[in-house]
Amino acid sequence: MSPRQIVVAGYGMAGARFAEEILRRDPEGERVSLTILGEEQHLAYNRVLLSGVVAGTMKPENVTLHGQEWHKKVRLGVSVTEIDRDARKVTLTDGSTIGYDALVLATGSRAWIPPVEGLSPEAPGVHTFRTLDDCAGILAAARPGAPVAVLGGGLLGIEAARGLVGRGCQVTVVHPVSHLMERQLDLAAGRVLANQLSTLGVEVKLDAKVNGYVPGDGLKLDDGLVPADMVVVTAGVKAETELAVRAGIEVDRGIVIDDCLRTSDPRVHAIGDCAQHPGTVAGLVQSAWEQAEVLADLLTGKDVSKRYRGTPVVTRLKARDVDLAALGDVHTGTDADDAEVLCLNDPTRGRYAKLVIRQDRVAGAILIGAPDAAATITQLYDSRVPVPSDRLAVLLGRALPSEATPAGSPAELPANALVCRCNSVTKAQLVTAWRTGATSVTELASATRATTGCGSCRDAVCGIAEWLSTTT
Amino acid sequence: MTLDGAQVTPREFPTNRGGLCQKGWTSGALLTNPMRLTKPLLHGNPVSWDTALDFVAERIQGIQEEHGRDGMAVFGGGGLTNEKAYALGKFARVALRTSQIDYNGRFCMSSAAAAGNKAFGVDRGMPFPVTDLDDADVILLVGANPAETMPPFMQHVKSGLIVVDPRRTATAERAMLHLKPAPGTDLALALGILHSVFSEGYAEHSYIEHRTQGFADAWRIAAKWWPERVERVTGVSATDQRAVARMLAKAKNAYILTARGTEQHASGTDTVSAWINLALALGLPGRPGSGYGCLTGQGNGQGGREHGQKADQLPGYRRIDDPQAREYVAGVWGVDPDSLPGPGRSAYELLDALGRPDGPKGLLVFGSNPVVSAPRARHVTDRLKALDLLVVADFVPNETTALADVVLPVTQWAEEEGTLTNLEGRVLHRRPALLPPPEVRSDLEVLQELATRLGTPAKAFPTIPEEVFDELARASRGGIADYSGITYARLRDGEALHWPVPSTQHPGTPRLFTEAFAHPDGRARFVPVDHKGPAEAPDEDFPLYATTGRVLAHYQSGAQTRRIDELVKAAPESYVEVHPDTAERAGLTEGDMAKVESRRGEVQARVRCVSSMRPDTVFLPFHFPGANSANRLTNPALDPVSRMPEFKVCAVRLAPWGDS
C-alpha cells in the first residue's frame, strides 16, 4: 500500500504546524507522503513574535519554528502557480508539476495597502509588517529620533507603534475610524487605549482622512501633514485566494471551508489565514493551529471523526505596558435588556473593564489594565463555566476570599479561628490554657504546642497573650 | 527528636530547627497504640511465627513452581529504612528471583527523579543543604504545600516566596505572589515563564553556552508559548508570568523547587523537565546560593529509591539492565549475574497485573497501603482480592492488611536501628529508643526467615542493621548514589554526610554541580518538552477538575495517623473543597454530604465551601479509606517515562450524597 500524496501550498504558521502534526501521527511516512512548498527563503517562523522582533526583545533567529533539519523536508523558494483539479496536479514557479491525492492550501494572507496617492509597497519609506523580511526593512529604517507613521490603528499597528516608540522613534498612529481597534473595542475602551499610548509617547490621529504620501515628507491629512521618514502600513490583510479563484474553487472573503476543512472541491483543503470558516475569524494563529491538527487527523486517517467547529476569538495585545484583552460580544451597552453588562471606566489610571454576561456565561469582555481579570474571564469564556455570582470580584480580578478577612484584634478573632496551623491550635484552646495557668507565651507553647512547628504564628500568639494579660 | 518512653521531645536539627508539627508531636502515640499488631495473623487468626512463615514459604514455592519466578511479586515503601529497602530488593532478586518488585515511591517522586536524571545525570532531591534556602531572595515553589505537609520546612523560606498551585493553600497564603494555573497545565506555565525569561533578556547566555546543551531545541518549543497564549491555557495572567521571570532573574539567590502537585501527572516527567529548563535558562543549578530541587514526600523517599526496590534498579542507583552494574552487584551478592532478573513492571502496572493470567499470583507488601494510596483504588482492591497469596508486613492494621492471607507484625520507627536519606541527600542514623512488643520482629528478621525457608543461606540476609548497611555501602560503591564511604561509626559521631561519599576519608558532597553536572561531558541537558494537557479533561458528563492532596494532620493513606485520637479530632473525615457557587449549582451547601463521581468510582465527602477555589475545580484529601477514598476517583493514566499515575487531575461531577 503506497502512501497518499499530499501537497501543502504554503509554509507559514498553518502549513508548518500541519506538517508537524502529520509527522507526529505518521513519523515513518507510511500513510502520507508530504510535499511542503514555501514561498519565502526562510524556514518557518513564528509570525506572532514579529512584533517582538520590532520591539527588540527577539532576534530574527529566535523566532524560527523549525530546526535546520527541516531543510530536507521542505522546498523553499517555490510556490504553486496553477491548480489543475481535473488532473489533480499543481504547477510550480519553476515550471515543474506535482500530482496530488489531496491538496492543502495554506497560502496565508497579504498586507492590504489602502488606495492613497503615492502610497505603494515600492515607494521609498513604505513598509508592510507581515514577514521576517518586512521586519528587517523596518528595523533598518527605525533610527532613533526619526518620525514614523503607522497607518492603521488595529492590533498589529498598535504593537508596531509600541515597539517603535520603544526604539526611540517618534511615532504617530494614523487611523481612519473614530476609535482604535474598533472591531475589538467599544468607544470608551478605545479612548482609554489611546490615552495609554499617548502616555507612552505615541501620538494618535483618529478619523484621519489620508490624501497622499510624499516620500521624505510623510502622510498628507485633511488637517495637515504627519511627518514620517517611514510609513508602516498596518491597514489590514486580505486572504491570499488567487490560486483558488483561478481554479474555480468557491471563495468569499477567504476560501470557503466546511468542518472537514474541505473547499468546494473535496480533494482540496484550506487552513489558516487564507481560509474562511463560519466558526472563527481569519488572522488568528489559534484557529490556524487547531485547523492543522484536525486536518492532520483526517488526512492520516488517525481519527476520521474529527471536525473543526471553530475557535472562540480572544484578542490579546502584545505590547509592553499595555495590557489589553477583548473577546466575544464587546459592543453591547450597559443599558441592554437581554444581557448583564458590568463596566468600570477609569481613564485616568488607564483601566477599563467591561463584562457582558448572557445565561450566566461570559458573552464578551474588554479588559485594559486588568491582567488578572483578563486571565480569569478568558478561561470562563473558553470553558463555558458559569460566571461566579460575585460578579464584581470577577470584574476586578482580585477576589479576596471571605475566609481570609483579617480580624482587627485578638479580641475580635472568633474562638474557633485556627492560630497555629501546624498543631491545630485555635484561639479558644489558647484562652483555655491561659485560664488554667499557662500565662506566658512559653507556657502557652508547652501547654498547646502553638508556635512549635514552623513558628510563623508566634506574633499572633504573642498578641493573644498580651490581650489575655490585659483582660484577665 | 528524642523519646522518653513514648513522649516526644524535639531536637535542634538543620532541616526542622527544632520545630515539630502535630504529626511529630503525636508520633509517640503510635508506639503504645492499642491497635498495634503484635501477633502474626493467618486468615485473620493469631498464629505462631513459625506457622505463619512456614505457610508463606510453602505458598511461595507452590506459586513459583506453577507460575514461574515472576508468579511472586513484592511491593515496598518509601518509608522503609535504607537497610530494609536494600534487603527487600535483594530478597526479590536473590531469594525469589522475581523481576516483579516496585514500591509506592513510584506514586511519589518518580517523575522528579526521571527528570533530574535526564537533566543533571543524577537524581538527588535537593543537590544542596536545605539551610542554603535561608539566604534565598526568591523561591518559586511549584505544586508544594509545605505549610501543611512539612511545616517546619517553612522556617527556611524567609522571603520572596512565589507559589504555583491551583488552590489557595496555607502555603500560598504566605506567598508574595500566588499563581493559580488550571489543574494539569503547569507545563504550559513553565514554558510561558521560560518564554518571558528569554524575550525580556534575562537568559544567562554564558551559562547556557558553557554549562548546558540542547537550549535551541527547548527554546523552539517555548517560543510557541508566548505568555498571552499560555494565559489562555493556564488562567495565569501574562503579567504574572513576566513578573515571575523578572523576580527570578533579578534575585541574587533564587531557587525553583517542585513537588507532587506538578509531578503526579501523566506528563509529570516532562513537566519537571520544563521547570528544570527554566532553572537552567536562568543559570541557577550549580550556582552557589541558587538551584533547582524537589521536595521529598516520604520519610525515606530519597534513600528508598536508591537501593533496589524499584523495578528497574540495583543498589547505588544503578540500572538493572546495565551489564556492568549487574556484574558488580552480583559479585557483592555472591551470585551469578545471569541469575538476576531483568526490569519488572512499575507500581501501578504491577498492581493492575495481579491475579491475571500473565501476572503475579502472590504478593508481599512491606510498608505500604495500596488499597488507599494507589490510583483507581477500587480496581486495585479487586486485583489484590484476585491473588492466591497476599502477605502484608506492617505495624498497625490498615485497609490492605484487611485483605491479607497473612499479616506479619513488624517493628516501627522508634523500635529499630537504621538509616534514612533525607531530602538533601544526607544520610541520617536513627537509634532505637524502645524495645518492641515481645512477639514483634523486624522486617530484616522476616526477610531472613523467609529466605532460609526458600533455600537461601541465612548469612545472605543479615538481621543486624549495621551489617546490612555495610553490605549496602559496598553494593553502592561506584554507583551514582555512592554510600561506600559511610559507616555507622561516622554517622554516630554526628558527621553530616551527603552522598556521594566514595571513601571513608571523603567528607561527603553537600553541594552537587558546583563544578560539573553528572553527564560524561559535565554539561546539564535542556530537554525539549511540550504541553499536552491532562489525560482526562472535563466534559459535559464530568464537568469539573478534581485534584487531590494532603492535610496537615494526616500522612499518606492515614493508616498511622488515623489511629491517633488527637489527629483524628483535628481532621476527622474526608471532605471536598469547592467554590460556593459550584456547590450551590450542585444543590449542596457547607456541611452537606456530597457524592463526587468520576468514570472510575464515587466518593462520599463533606462539603467545604471555599471561595478562593477555582469554580471549575474541587479538592479532596487522599488519606481516607473506603467510601471516602479519593483514589477511587483518580486516573491511572501513566507517565511514559516515570510510570507515575495522574493523581493530580481527573474529571468528576458533584451531587448530593444519596441522589441516584
Q: How do the strands line up in the largest sheet of chain B?
A: 4-3-17-16-15-5-6
Oligomer: heterodimer
Helix content of chain B: 25-40%
Distance between the termini of chain B: 50 Å
Strand order of the largest sheet of chain A: 3-2-1-7-19
Task: Characterize the largest beta sheet of chain B: strand count, sense, and whether it forms a barrel.
Answer: 7 strands, mixed
How does CATH name the architecture of the largest domain in chain A?
A: 3-Layer(bba) Sandwich
The chain-level structural class of chain A is: alpha/beta
Structural class of chain B: alpha/beta
Share of helical residues of chain A: 25-40%
Give the low-pLDDT segments of chain A.
Answer: 401-406
Number of strands of chain B: 29
Low-pLDDT parts of chain B are: none
Query: Architecture of the largest domain in chain B in CATH?
Result: 3-Layer(aba) Sandwich
What is the CA-CA span between the terminal residues of chain A? 92 Å
Number of helices of chain A: 12
Tell me, rounded to a whole number, the average pLDDT of chain B.
92
Stated plainly, the CATH topology of the largest domain in chain B is called Rossmann fold
Task: Please explain how this structure is put together.
Chain A: Its cofactor is siroheme; FAD; [4Fe-4S] cluster. Chain A: Keywords: FAD, Flavoprotein, Heme, Iron, Iron-sulfur, Metal-binding, Oxidoreductase. Chain A: Pathway: Nitrogen metabolism; nitrate reduction (assimilation). The complex is a heterodimer of chains A (about 475) and B (about 650). The model of chain A is unreliable at about 400-405 (pLDDT under 50). Chain A has about 475 residues and is an alpha/beta fold. In chain A, a hairpin with a 4-residue loop joins strand 23 and strand 24 (about 350-360). In chain A, the strands form eight sheets. A five-stranded parallel beta sheet of chain A has the order 3-2-1-7-19, covered by helices on one side. Chain A has a five-stranded parallel beta sheet with strand order 9-16-10-11-12, covered by helices on one side. In chain A, strands 21-22-25-24-23 form a five-stranded antiparallel beta sheet, with helices on both faces. Chain A has twelve helices and 27 strands. Chain A has helices spanning about 15-25, 50-55, 130-140, 155-165, 185-200, 240-245, 285-300, 370-385, 390-395, 425-435, 440-450, 460-470, and strands spanning about 5-10, 30-40, 75, 80-85, 90, 95-100, 100-105, 110, 125-130, 145-150, 170-175, 205, 210-215, 220, 225, 230-235, 235-240, 255, 270, 275, 315, 325-330, 340-345, 350-360, 360-370, 420, 425. With about 650 residues, chain B is of the alpha/beta class. Chain B has four domains: about 1-30, no CATH class; about 35-105 and about 300-470, Rossmann fold, CATH 3.40.50.740; about 110-295, Dimethylsulfoxide Reductase, domain 2; about 545-655, Barwin-like endoglucanases. Helices cover about 30% and strands about 20% of the residues of chain B. The model of chain B has no long low-confidence stretch (mean pLDDT about 90). Classes of the chains: A alpha/beta (about 475), B alpha/beta (about 650). The interface between A and B is large, with 47 and 56 residues.
